[in-house]
Amino acid sequence: KLFFTDYGNAAKVERCDMDGMNRTWIVDSKIEQPTALALDLINKYVYWLDIYLESVEVVDYQGRRRQTITKGRQIRHLCGLAVFENYLYTVNSDNLSILRINRYNGTDVQALARLDNAKEIRVYHKRPQAAARSHACEADPHGMPGGCSHICLLSSSYKARTCRCRTGFILGSDGRSCK
Questions:
Q1: Nearest residue to 151 (alpha-carbon basis) of 159, 161, 113
Q2: This prediction's pTM
Q3: What GO cellular component term, any one, is given (predicted)?
Q4: Per-residue pLDDT tens digits for 66-94
């Protein structure tokens, strides 16, 4: 799945399949300007910053169990969001510090370091990532991802895929080659 925020005409947090299909709004009320998003892949939670409402909130992947983690004027200066273990990490653009926030109750906010310039944050851990299971976009014997001549996008599950073409090409009738 792909998760993203939108604060155009109607602000929302959405998800869709990697090929853009099955687009679903998971948060579409009491939301104004969601600017950063982070996923808890283990527990299947979506966290986001809303700088207009000055809040950090969380829902599960279906948009249920919504909770406010923290609220206040300091949120309007936050950008970027990452989750790791018991904490959320973000950047305060006002004083360029990295903040750590307890993700279960919003307390225990600590400034960890100062940076010269940052707008995004990622957490990398020394423990290797879990091995990915085989999926529909793995290279075929000819080196083509999922048998697609240009682009392979996972669809509704890791077993399904959709082929797409680069700009200027059209998908052939076989659904795999681009012309």
A1: 161
A2: 0.82
A3: plasma membrane
A4: 999 999 877 778 889 999 999 999 998 88
